[in-house]
Amino acid sequence: MELGREGRHLVAPPEEIYAPLLHGKDFETVLQETVDEVLNQIFGYQTTDTIFESMKMMGSEKGMNTPEPPMETALPRLLKRLVGAPHVLIETSILKCLHFKYGLEYEDMESSSFRIRIRKLKKDLSRKSSGGVNRS
C-alpha cells in the first residue's frame, strides 16, 4: 500500500472501490445485498435466512402480488418484532453501508423512518448521477 507525505495510507474513495461491484446493479439489488451483509454480520447466516424467509411470508400473508413486500417497509417491521428498539441501530448500519458504497456522506436522520431515509438516499443518488450532490 502506498503512503502519502504525512505517512497516511492512500486509499481510493469508496465510490471507486465499490464501482466495479455496483456496476449494472439497480438500487433494489444493492439494497438487498447490503441488508444481507449487515444482517449476516450481526445475526449470522442462519438467522439472516430466517429473516428473509419471514419477509417473504409477510408478503404472501397480505395477499400481495409480489413475493415479498418492499425491503424498506417489511424489514423494519420484522426487525422491530425481533429485537425491539435496537432495530434502529441495525437500520442505521444498513444505511451507512449504502451511503459508503455509493460514495455519499451519511446524514443522520434519526427521527425519520427507514423507508423515508431509503427514499432520500434514492433521491440523493439521482442528484449525484446528474452532478448535484457533494461526494464524501
Describe this structure in words.
- The protein has helices spanning 14-22, 27-43, 45-61, 71-83, 87-102, 114-129.
- With 136 residues, the chain is an all-alpha fold.
- It has one domain.
- Helix 2 packs across helix 3, helix 4 (71-83) runs antiparallel to helix 5 and helix 5 (87-102) runs parallel beside helix 6.
- It is globular, with a radius of gyration of 17 Å.
- The chain starts with 13 loop residues before the first helix and ends in a 7-residue tail after the last helix.
Quick structural gist:
It is built from 6 helices and no strands.
- Give the class from helix and strand content and strand pairing: mainly alpha
Extract low-pLDDT stretches.
Answer: none
Write the H/E string, N to C. HHHHHH
- Note the overall shape: globular
Estimate the strand proportion. under 5%
Tally of structural domains: 1
What labels describe this entry?
globular; 6 helices; mainly alpha; 136 residues; single chain
Topology:
Layout: H1 14-22, H2 27-43, H3 45-61, H4 71-83, H5 87-102, H6 114-129
